[in-house]
Amino acid sequence: MKTEKSFFQTTFDELAVEFKQNGFPLYAAEQVYSWIYKHFILDVTAWTNVSKAVKAYLQENYSFDLPKVLWHGQSVDGTRKFLFGLQDGQSIETVLIPARERLTLCVSSQVGCAIGCRFCHTGTMGLKRNLEAWEVVGQLMAVAIMFNVKVTNVVYMGQGEPLHNFENMKQATLILMTHKGLALGQRKITLSTSGLVPQIERLSEFPPVNVAISLHAAHNNIRSELMPINKAYDLERLLKAIKGIPLKAHRFITYEYILIEGLNDRVEDAEALIELLDKKDSKVNIIPFNEYPASAFKRPSKEKTLWFQNLLNARGLVCTTRMTKGADILAACGQLKSEFEKLNVWNS
Ligand code: SAH
Ligand code: SF4
Questions:
Q1: Which residues are within 8 A (CB) of 165 and not within 5 positions of it... i.e. 6 or more apart?
Q2: Considering only CA atoms, which residue is closest to atom 8 of ligand 2?
Q3: Could you give the CA distance from residue 267 to residue 19 in angstroms, rounded to a whole number?
């Protein structure tokens, strides 16, 4: 029986071992990785320098299928949003964000999410399942092939909690970073987490990527109201776990802070943030709340956002504001999927 596995699930080292076991030379694994990840040519028959035996072996044992683009759209600001269909009928979202010389891809790590943050549209869906490593790498490959572009940065900020899917995200990260392939540097990948303390404590087992923490409040009562996970792992436990993350020289922990009108945008909130965070290795990234239909919160004005940002900067806490991208194509996390489900496109 033919037992196919996804090529996009396989690290270079695993492929090299398998090739060795089958009597193929190491350079053949390098050539294959290069055709796929550097030239984006998935058609084995088009590879000019690869032996017939290697091609036959790959065709027999591997699938080169990618998640299918069900819909994609471009915003007036250049952001592109993709809705991908998976083999079991589930769907996920991916966003491509061009900015100056960078091309950043925001990938999903799960179908839905179990954490249930009150401000997050994905959180309202619950968790359907983890993504396989190939479905994560596949989001990048499908976009790269579709537009023949090189993605320069990847952020794990789409649907899902990446640390809830630790092993698969680790495998995907190894593949994204492989020098023989996509060769994304460790500073080009950012993992964003809601603050799963046990997994943060295991980050030394993960490739050394940038870490962003979804903080959103510097008071436990406000954070617990926004994010149920704070009841399990409060700010004290979270900050203690963060201190244990192995940081390379000149590396920062980024703290994401959704600014919500009247909830966490007061002087005392800024004061508490300044108290809580270590100015030396922290950066705050303010995200003005992205409203969606029936959302319980309001986005603060531009002036208020700037005022809050300036307050932190004036006290020596490095702080920037991330402007919403692609609002006109429902780029806020989880929105597109919901709109599509309402339209029932899956069944048409
Ligand atoms: N689960 C991970 C990563 C995915 S969410 C996490 O929570 O960190 C990526 C970022 O989008 C998080 O910082 C999250 O808090 C933010 N986000 C979710 N819903 C949002 C909304 N409605 N407006 C602004 N940011 C939102
Ligand atoms: Fe999950 Fe992140 Fe959304 Fe919270 S913000 S529900 S952790 S995806």
A1: 109, 110, 130, 131
A2: 160
A3: 61
Beta bridge partners of 286: 257, 321
Q: Which residues line ligand 2 (CB under 6 A)?
A: 113, 115-117, 120, 122-123, 159-161, 194, 214
Measured distance between the N- and C-terminal CA atoms of the chain, rounded to whole angstroms: 34
**Residue with CA at minimum distance from ligand 1 atom 17:** 120
- Probe target for ligand 1 pocket from 290, 333, 336, 337, with the most ligand atoms within 8 Å of CB: 333
Q: What are the residue ranges spanned by the domains of the chain?
A: 5-63, 68-343
**5-63 and 68-343, same CATH topology:** no
Q: Which two tokens stand for residue 169?
A: 């995200």
Half-sphere exposure of 152 (CA within 13 A, CB side): 7
Ligand 2 atom nearest to CA at 110:
8
Return the ligand number nearest the Cα of 169: 1
The residues carrying an active-site annotation are 93, 333
CA Rg, the chain, in Å?
21
For the domain made up of 5-63, the CATH class stated in words is: mainly alpha
CA of 176 to the centre of ligand 1 (A): 22
For the record, the structure tokens of 301 come out as: 């004005």
Q: Is 120 a pocket residue for ligand 1 (Cβ < 6 Å)?
A: yes
Tens-digit pLDDT string for the chain (348 aa): 456 899 999 999 999 999 999 999 999 999 999 999 999 999 999 999 999 999 999 999 999 999 999 999 998 888 999 999 999 999 999 999 998 899 999 999 999 999 999 999 888 889 999 999 999 999 999 999 999 999 999 999 999 999 999 999 999 999 999 999 999 999 999 999 999 999 999 999 999 999 999 999 999 999 999 999 999 999 999 999 999 998 776 678 999 999 999 999 999 999 999 999 999 999 999 999 988 888 889 999 999 999 999 999 999 999 999 877 666 665 555 555 555 544 433 322
Q: What is the pTM of this model?
A: 0.94
Please give the class, per CATH, of domain 68-343.
alpha beta
